[in-house]
Amino acid sequence: MTTPQAAAMPPFHLAFPVHDLAEARRFYGGLLGCPEGRSSPDWIDFNFHGHQIVAHLAPDECNFSAVSAVDGHGVPVRHFGVVLSMAQWHEMADKLRSAGTEFVIEPYIRFKGEVGEQATMFFRDPSGNAIELKAFANLESLFAK
């Protein structure tokens, strides 16, 4: 299966719970640099690298503790993210480190020397939602077996 070009790929939509919209605004809009779209007193749309993510105020739904073993790490089972270019990934890793971000999984190269080798990092937003940012030296290996 070949990987579609980014421009031809339809944007996805993801809605997720947060316990505080002001914190979500600071985290997604400020730290991650996601432009804000529409909003209401109960939700905020963000442009997450061309995809629509929506932070919904739902404090009772913010408990995500399940992990799965991947490459010797406990990867949060419930997570979302984006595949960046390698340069963007390094830039974001530096920005997050400089901001004092606590990583669930520190930035590193996963599956080194194997098909699907990738740079990855996991961190949580202020409501506990896990986010993975990854990059491939060769994007064609995104779906390789």
TrEMBL record:
Residues 10-136 form the VOC domain. It comes from Ramlibacter algicola. This is VOC family protein. InterPro entries: Glyas_Bleomycin-R_OHBP_Dase, Glyas_Fos-R_dOase_dom, VOC_core. The lineage of its organism: Bacteria, Pseudomonadati, Pseudomonadota, Betaproteobacteria, Burkholderiales. PANTHER family: PTHR39434, VOC DOMAIN-CONTAINING PROTEIN.
